Amino acid sequence: MSVVQSFLFVVVILLGYGLVVIFLMSKNSSLYVKKAENIVFPVGIPSFVQKKTNIVFLKTHKTASSSIQNMLMRFADEHGLLLALPARGNFFGHPPSFHHSMIPDPPSKRHYNIFAHHTQFNYDELRRAMPEDSIFITVLRDPVDVFESLYSYCNLEALYRRPLISFGINMSDEEIEVRSQALAGLGINQMSFDLGMNPNNFKDPVQVSTYAYILDKQFDLVLITEQLDESLVLLKNMLGWETDDVVFFKLNARHEKFVKSLPSDVRYRLRSINFSDQVMYDFFKERLAERIRKFGEERLAIEIQELRKRREEWMKFCVKGTELLIKTGDAKKTSYLNLKVTKLKPRKDNDTCRKMTALELDYTEEIRQKQKPLYRKYREDNRNYFNTTLKD
């Protein structure tokens, strides 16, 4: 090839690349390509960033975790990632702690990318089931508000035989510490229980503090419900995701008429009863504050503004209103603990909107059906493990 021909060849290649770049920019393309087990997504043209796709989310009770879970499930669904799912329902053996045998082996030359369903935390077993580079995250909330929400949502008044406002008064330790076996081991210090701490250590300040430090080494980020937007911005940057990737709606939330405002003396009493949760919450709230200072508050404010703007835009586009679950067809489903929650009414002509407003069990089953071959083999290998099987 002559020098002139070589020069013309290079010019043609550069022109072709330029046309492709212009086309992608004009289309605001969401194109992504697979490279082995990693997914590479363009963020702006010609800059590229690799999004992290291997994530373990320890779903805690009544902490906005269902909304975060929906975000992670949609990301996995939209990008062809493999979601670790229980063979039925939406719990991995809770209250028994997680064991890797609770999920089927992934298909040949694949691994699970995202774990986002309820379980009792077992770091070693989750590490055994998930990729080595998995990012571990969870979310914590003010313990008094967690317990108030649990008490209402799960009707713990029937378990403890007293209204929340008098909980802890003239009650023995045995009465206070009982956990509802019918409701996945729910009770006091619920977040500590979800995080895998031994209930026998809930009152021991040294044991609780030690466990908080252990968790700090195991989790890459602990989100705080009361600072959820700040937490999501930090998560977005940790994962290399875009703003729209961390947009979600408030799901599985009780209607405001079922939320009780507690007097200060009751809050003080419940804070003392949920001692372990309070220590965990205070510890990781301070850790979040440290991360925010390192990230930069001015930069954080800008990104929070963008996040809220996009959430509002998606809400206006997707949601046509809200209604009590009891007034919908979903109220007939026996799988829901109560009918106090509200359900978003999405527009019917957009699949993304449908998924953003989907109930956890419905969306879990939808993805499970996509991964059905895994669970068919799992049932065959574990016929004696389950009392029931998935519907074919």
Please provide a written account of the structure.
There is one protein chain. With 392 residues, the protein is of the alpha/beta class. Helix content is 45%, strand content 13%. A hairpin with a 2-residue loop joins strand 1 (33-35) and strand 2. Helix 9 crosses helix 12. It is globular.
Question: Which labels suit this protein?
Answer:
single chain; 392 residues; alpha/beta; 5-stranded parallel sheet; 13% strand
Structural topology:
Elements: H1 3-27, E1 33-35, E2 38-42, E3 48-50, E4 55-58, H2 65-78, E5 83-84, E6 91-97, E7 114-115, E8 118-120, H3 123-129, E9 135-140, H4 143-153, H5 156-160, H6 173-177, H7 190-194, H8 205-218, E10 221-224, H9 228-239, H10 264-273, H11 275-295, H12 297-318, E11 319-324, E12 342-346, H13 351-356, H14 360-370, H15 372-381
Parallel strand pairs: 4-7, 4-9, 5-7, 6-8, 9-10
Antiparallel strand pairs: 1-2, 2-3, 11-12
Helix pairs in contact: 2-14, 8-11, 9-12, 10-11
- Largest sheet strand order: 5-7-4-9-10
Strand fraction equals 5-15%
Q: What composes the largest sheet?
A: 5 strands, parallel
Fraction of residues in helices? 40-55%
Which outline best applies? Answer: globular
Number of strands: 12
User: What does the average pLDDT come to?
Assistant: 82
Return residue spans where pLDDT drops below 50 for at least 5 consecutive residues.
10-14, 16-47, 384-392
Distance between the termini: 62 Å
Total helix count? 15
Category from helices, strands and their pairing: alpha/beta
H/E element sequence:
HEEEEHEEEEHEHHHHHEHHHHEEHHH
Radius of gyration over C-alpha positions, nearest whole angstrom: 23 Å
